[in-house]
Specification:
- The complex is a heterodimer of chains A (273) and B (101).
- By secondary structure, chain A is an alpha+beta fold.
- Chain A has helices at residues 91-108, 136-141, 207-216, 225-239, 254-272; strands at 2-8, 11-17, 40-46, 57-61, 64-69, 72-77, 82-87, 111-121, 124-129, 148-151, 154-160, 163-168, 185-195, 201-204, 244-249.
- In chain A, the strands form 2 sheets. A 7-stranded mixed beta sheet of chain A has the order 1-2-3-7-6-5-4, covered by helices on one side. In chain A, strands 8-9-13-12-11 form a 5-stranded mixed beta barrel.
- In chain A, a hairpin with a 2-residue loop joins strand 5 and strand 6 (72-77).
- In chain A, helix 3 crosses helix 4 (225-239).
- The longest helix of chain A has 19 residues, at 254-272.
- Chain B has 101 residues and is of the alpha+beta class.
- Chain B is built from 4 helices and 5 strands, in the order αββββαααβ.
- In chain B, the strands form 2 sheets. Chain B has a 3-stranded antiparallel beta sheet with strand order 2-3-4. In chain B, strands 1-5 form a two-stranded antiparallel ribbon.
- In chain B, helix 3 crosses helix 4 (71-87).
- Chain B is globular.
- Chain B starts with a helix and ends in an 8-residue tail after the last strand.
- The chains are: A alpha+beta (273), B alpha+beta (101).
- At the A-B interface, helix 3 and helix 4 of A face strand 2 and strand 3 of B.
């Protein structure tokens, strides 16, 4: 029985599988160094056929989750810190199952995988969230100076007491990423991007809208009521710590954009001081 | 469903919705459709009422008692609101024979 320690944003999952190691594409999330105390130990098996033709079926209670999708059968239990996973012999199917499992663990640790570009500029971390094509990567690339781009597609954010940390999400299928992503950093603000016409604009939104903007950009969430409730709570706790705003992004107005972002943050920081 | 029928039909929150009330607004997510909804203060008032089965007619009465709105406007707005909630599956018709709480 071979055991592989996988890690994302400080969350460890020990995969116990008979036979060979996990496929090489997962080496990007293999933990290095001392074995950690895993949040879950998952017994993994490959089967020729798993739930053929089935749709998504999820069930759960607080702290447990079962999901069956074509090619995947998974049961996770936080109290027992263990789970079972069976998939067909397909790396992409296994990767999807692990992403759902990690996201489920993260939302219970007051964090989430977010569809966002993350960057660190000076001492501040920024997340720009939005659907494909919203301008996340463009916005990050327009940052003046030499910011560290954490990732331009997915990041993990985690609330820790009175701060929120921005974590790089390892590249699942390209472990030899060069340059390596920067270390985790404090997240200063979360911007939900919308298309602007001619002028870029930052707009404050209500508390519930802030929670919604974070939630809507959470990815790999299991469609199960307890998990969704935990994700909503996580989003709500995060928005209580950092500014969350809508950012209408208009490419013609890019010159003023970063000045506006910095000014918005200065105003928020001076108001909360 | 005909509008006239909606008016006197009992509805209740769909059981597959997760929701949180945040500073007077209600944030709802349907686990079956994936739909995300945000209700303002009046919508939140109605949502709270729908913990138990109620007709739009009953809800309209409660809304006019609670908010500064005339009954004609309240009736139209509440019918529109229920139509929207039915279409997005965040409420469901209460079946006779079910326990109503």
């Amino acid at each position: 029985m071979l055991k592989t320690d996988l890690e994302i944003a400080g969350i460890h999952v020990l995969i116990s599988a008979p036979g060979d190691n996990l496929p090489g594409r997962f080496s990007g999330i293999c933990a290095a160094g001392e074995p950690a105390n895993p949040a879950l130990t998952i017994d993994y098996r490959v089967a020729e056929s798993v739930n053929p033709g089935s749709g998504i079926s999820t069930s759960g209670t607080p702290g447990s989750l079962s999901f069956d999708i074509q090619g995947i059968s998974c049961e996770l239990d936080l109290a027992e810190r263990k789970g079972k996973l069976v998939t067909v012999n397909d790396d992409t199917v296994l990767e999807y199952a692990l992403k759902v499992a990690f996201q489920w663990l993260l939302i219970h640790e007051c964090g989430s995988i977010i569809h966002a570009a993350g960057l660190i500029k000076g001492k501040r971390g920024y997340a720009f969230a939005g659907p494909p094509g919203a301008g996340k990567s463009t916005l990050a690339s327009l940052a003046p100076g030499e910011p560290d781009i954490v990732n331009d597609e997915h990041v993990a954010i985690i609330r820790e007491d009175d701060s929120v940390t921005l974590h790089p999400l390892p590249a699942w299928a390209s472990p030899d990423r060069n340059p390596a992503p920067p270390p985790p950093a404090p997240l200063s603000a979360f911007f939900a991007i919308a298309h602007g016409e001619s002028e870029s604009m930052i707009t404050g939104v209500t508390a519930a809208e802030q929670t919604r903007r974070i939630f809507e950009n959470m990815v790999f969430l299991p469609p199960e009521i307890n998990s969704l409730g935990a994700a909503m709570d996580t989003a709500d706790r995060i928005r209580k710590i950092i500014p969350v705003a809508r950012l209408d992004f208009a490419l013609p107005d890019r010159e003023n954009l970063w000045n506006g972002i910095e000014q918005y943050l200065e105003n928020k920081i001076s108001k909360s001081a | 469903m005909e509008l006239n029928n909606i008016w006197k039909t009992k509805f209740q929150r769909a059981p597959d919705c997760a929701f949180r009330e945040i500073e007077g607004e209600t944030f709802i997510v349907s686990s079956s459709t994936g739909g995300v909804h945000l209700l303002n203060s009046v919508g939140s008032f109605i949502w709270n009422r729908l913990e138990l089965p109620a007709t739009p007619e009953e809800i309209a009465g409660a809304v006019t008692d609670e908010f500064d709105v005339d009954s004609g406007t309240a009736q139209k707005d509440i019918l529109d609101f229920f139509t929207s909630m039915i279409e997005t599956s965040i409420v469901r018709q209460f079946e006779s024979g079910e326990s109503d709480g």
